[in-house]
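Here is an idea for our session: we take a single protein and study its fold together. To get us started, please write out a protein record for me. Start from the sequence, derive the backbone structure tokens from it, and show both lines together. Go ahead whenever you are ready, and we will take it from there:
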Amino acid sequence: MINFNYETDFILENEEDIASWLSAVIASENKKEGEISYIFCDDEYLHKINVEYLNHDTLTDVISFDYTMGNEISGDCFISVERVKDNAIDFNVTFEEEIKRVLAHGILHYCGYKDKGEDEEALMRKKEDEKIALFHVEQ
């Protein structure tokens, strides 16, 4: 089950479509859907989590806590809407595309993909693009 929670005034306009797409992303990786919660917040909220739980004193767009057991993926994915908006401008993409990228990014972490080294990061970007393309197929 995919849940959306809001700690800011942002609200996804198409929760049902997004949830269906994320379910398809999970299935495309041959994983089972467990309990996945997305929490949309602002920079300040996510910065506190980054410092408290990861000991990183930086701003970030997404932090995912992975509770996956075996083939059933579960987790909490915190997304800073402010960072996503800024990144969309920096990467010259729409906000909608960038929000899909971070939504998929969390799922991909739960599926075992990492993004620490150059090779891992390149594979993560490739997978994100592949999963964003699924959204257009699902509609």
Notes: The beta strands are 2-6, 32-41, 62-66, 72-80. The first strand starts at residue 2 and ends at 6.
